[in-house]
Amino acid sequence: MTDLTVLMSTIEAIRPASDQTRREATAAMADKVKPLGSLGLLEEVAIRIAALRGRVDLPDPTPAVVVCAADHGIAREGVSAFPQAVTGLMLTAFGTGGAAVAVLSRAAGARLVVADLGVIDPPVVPGVLDLSIRPGTANSVDGPAMTPAEATAALRQGIDLAHELVDDGVDLIALGEMGIGNTTTASALTAALLGLDAAATCGRGTGLDDEQVAHKVSVVDQVLARHASVSDDPLAVLAAMGGLEVAALAGVVLGAAERKVPVLVDGFITGAAALVAARLAPACTDAMVAAHLSPEPGHALQLAALGLRPLLDLQMRLGEGSGAALAINVVRSSIAVLTEMATFASLGLDQTSPVT
Ligand SMILES: O=C(O)c1ccc[n+]([C@@H]2O[C@H](COP(=O)([O-])O)[C@@H](O)[C@H]2O)c1
Ligand SMILES: Cc1cc2nc[nH]c2cc1C
């Protein structure tokens, strides 16, 4: 099958979560020995996952953290506090287990899957999947970051990866990314897809000062002006602005949603991938859980557009999937609440009258 055929058949196959199971899970949660709604978002997450999976008796999840890495031509505009070579260096840190996301994945009992979608001069690191489409995108200030065929190929890599993980027993996927310059790419994508000004979506990334953020806004303004004609078509916007890892992560979302497996969206860059996926297949938002809130100003705007509420707000702005890895145990706990908590009835209590 061609990349486009796989993409289209995946989009076609994505169905909304089950309303019937949502009602059953909501009723089951209401019976638990606690005041109604007192476990807050923990209740909502378990109910949403039950509705997605089509069953209330959820097993303890088998999680995987998927980190997609790639380089960005836009980094040449001086929009990051760090040099582009850091993208490749971090591949080694992922592969050797010393990166934050490797530590947090271990703490969550999750398998870590790292994929190179287009790192320039990637180091040879055992365990890192070579899914490279091209060595970095082109600079989207000057022209399209990639061709529609390259964007589709990256999406397909993500879809295939999600399918392989699910076939292997994974039923919870945390999204992560690495790519110097990718907050600028995510700012452009978010502004284009949500019809926002660059100033609303640009933040400090890896640590820009106010003057550097102003420069970043002017660069994103140039990208938006250069590609103004494509703003109605999500695949064309993705190809025009990048990036390769964003495309692959959008594919992971689509592939997971097709198989009714929840994805934990991490920060601002995975949020941009989630937006792309939602534009391609609106029902895939039922598979998304927002792990945390990044201080990048565009992140809250993305989550509002997706109708998602973040589980955590720890002022984390690392990326890599660090927030998503951390939220795995929150999701695991929410499922345990739904499946293991006692009910009022089982304790011989009447939940409608307070115990005196
Ligand atoms: O996840 C976030 O919200 C986030 C916010 C700021 C920075 N990052 C990470 O930092 C890198 C991009 O930052 P920058 O400044 O180079 O665009 C990239 O590797 C991301 O993983 C990630
Ligand atoms: C060191 C470093 C680690 C990262 N992890 C994700 N983005 C990153 C950016 C830098 C600079």
TrEMBL record:
Pfam families, A to Z: DBI_PRT
SUPFAM superfamilies according to UniProt: Nicotinate mononucleotide:5,6-dimethylbenzimidazole phosphoribosyltransferase (CobT) (SSF52733)
Record GO biological process: cobalamin biosynthetic process
Residues at the catalytic site: 320 (proton acceptor)
Keyword set, alphabetical order: Cobalamin biosynthesis, Glycosyltransferase, Transferase
E.C. designation(s): 2.4.2.21
Known catalytic reactions: 5,6-dimethylbenzimidazole + nicotinate beta-D-ribonucleotide = alpha-ribazole 5'-phosphate + nicotinate + H(+)
Pathway participation: Nucleoside biosynthesis; alpha-ribazole biosynthesis; alpha-ribazole from 5,6-dimethylbenzimidazole: step 1/2
InterPro entries on file: Nict_dMeBzImd_PRibTrfase, Nict_dMeBzImd_PRibTrfase_bact, Nict_dMeBzImd_PRibTrfase_N, Nict_dMeBzImd_PRibTrfase_sf
GO molecular function, one term: nicotinate-nucleotide-dimethylbenzimidazole phosphoribosyltransferase activity
Family under the similarity heading: Belongs to the CobT family.
Function (record text): Catalyzes the synthesis of alpha-ribazole-5'-phosphate from nicotinate mononucleotide (NAMN) and 5,6-dimethylbenzimidazole (DMB).
This protein's name: Nicotinate-nucleotide--dimethylbenzimidazole phosphoribosyltransferase
Natural source organism: Nocardioides piscis
Taxon lineage: Bacteria, Bacillati, Actinomycetota, Actinomycetes, Propionibacteriales
